[in-house]
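Supplementary Methods. Inverse-folding protocol.

Structures were first reduced to a discrete structure-token string of length 404. This string, shown here, constituted the complete conditioning input.
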């Protein structure tokens, strides 16, 4: 598994703004792959991570790759994309890289433990890499194993039940506010996060007015219709209306809610689900304004983790089992060309020895095949053991020796 590498940044060590700053258009991925000398690449971006999964031949240093990527991103994007400081970045290799992906796919590394969305995001990232010719057989093996363990964890534990999305982490806050404040709720955006937010508000209160503000009137109208609300152009926000809650869930590059806006809205609760942040941090310092951002939701997430410790331990054990299976599969993948070369070498030697027996050609061919298949079993068994317990690099060395 030494050929797997993951680079990037996540919510665990960087801010949401830093995660967003590391994102790049997919048009640059081929150049990134070639510039970093990677054989395969899958690029994953979610609300809380921007990551590159890579494969390499031979020894390498993930730390140096991070520094190379840090130089490359600003150069490719004219300064629009950049990595956080190297000490805050993800740089894992081999078993640790594989374990990281398994935990991501199973939503063990998510801010909202057990969230349902991340597995679909991982699958889509892999499908896109395959379509673009960036992912090959090694990453196919790695990602398929991650899908397998994620499904098992969702089936055999209760981690997928309860508060399992960023929106659902805010349920307690929203329930408390809507129970005491009859004013409406404004939702900025009409994407997936905004849709979940609107559905949650309607679930918590059938009477609360919901106003959808969005740049695209069509999407806003559709969402408003589904939740029994009304739609307005984003440019009209905040207008003269005052709301109990403003939920910001857009991908706007610049904040939509500043301290000045917050003063106009007060008293209000601002739930900021945007990436990058839709509200400036100083909004929380305005009297009468409660700012609930992704950082504060992290405290709820940590409490969620503590309450599910037993399920977490079971899930981590499943991941270790899957890592063992992945290790065996990778060895078999690397053993295939060695086996083919050995069979060919034994067949050639067997044919020379049996050629003097006078057997008919069809019988000679059958005898050569049987003998070469028998001869190859013992060395393959030994190579499999050595590669599993030491380094798969021995297979490459052995193959080179056979070809000589």
């Amino acid at each position: 598994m030494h050929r797997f590498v993951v680079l990037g940044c996540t919510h665990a060590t960087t801010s949401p703004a830093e995660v967003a700053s590391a994102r790049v258009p997919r048009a640059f991925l081929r150049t990134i792959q070639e510039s970093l000398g990677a054989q395969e690449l899958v690029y994953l971006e979610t609300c809380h991570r921007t990551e590159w999964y890579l494969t390499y031949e031979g020894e390498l240093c993930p730390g140096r790759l991070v520094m190379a990527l840090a130089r490359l991103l600003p150069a490719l994007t004219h300064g629009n994309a950049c990595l956080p400081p190297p000490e805050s970045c993800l740089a894992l290799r081999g078993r640790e890289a594989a374990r990281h992906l398994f935990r991501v796919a199973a939503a063990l590394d998510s801010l909202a433990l057990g969230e349902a969305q991340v597995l679909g995001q991982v699958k889509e990232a892999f499908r896109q890499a395959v379509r673009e010719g960036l992912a090959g057989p090694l990453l196919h093996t790695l990602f398929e194993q991650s899908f397998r363990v994620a499904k098992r964890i969702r089936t055999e534990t209760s981690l997928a039940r309860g508060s399992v999305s960023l929106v659902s982490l805010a349920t307690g806050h929203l329930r408390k506010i809507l129970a005491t404040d009859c004013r409406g709720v404004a939702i900025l955006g009409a994407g997936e996060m905004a849709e979940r937010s609107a559905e949650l508000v309607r679930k918590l209160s059938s009477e609360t007015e919901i106003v959808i503000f969005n740049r695209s009137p069509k999407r806003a109208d559709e969402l408003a219709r589904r939740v029994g609300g009304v739609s307005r152009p984003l440019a009209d926000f905040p207008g003269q209306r005052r709301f109990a809650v403003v939920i910001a869930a857009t991908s706007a590059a610049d904040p939509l809610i500043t301290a000045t806006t917050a003063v106009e809205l007060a008293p209000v609760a601002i739930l900021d689900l945007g990436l990058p942040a839709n509200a400036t941090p100083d909004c929380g310092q305005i009297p009468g304004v409660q700012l609930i951002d992704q950082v504060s939701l992290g405290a709820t997430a940590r409490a969620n983790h503590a309450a599910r410790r037993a399920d977490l331990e079971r899930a981590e054990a499943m991941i270790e089992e899957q890592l063992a299976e992945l290790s065996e599969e990778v060895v078999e993948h690397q053993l295939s060309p060695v086996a083919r070369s050995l069979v060919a070498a034994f067949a050639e030697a067997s044919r020379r020895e049996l050629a003097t027996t006078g057997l008919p050609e069809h019988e000679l061919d059958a005898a050569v095949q049987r003998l070469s298949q028998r001869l190859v079993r013992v060395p393959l068994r030994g190579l499999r053991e050595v590669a599993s317990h030491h380094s798969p690099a021995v297979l490459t060395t052995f193959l080179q020796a056979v070809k000589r």
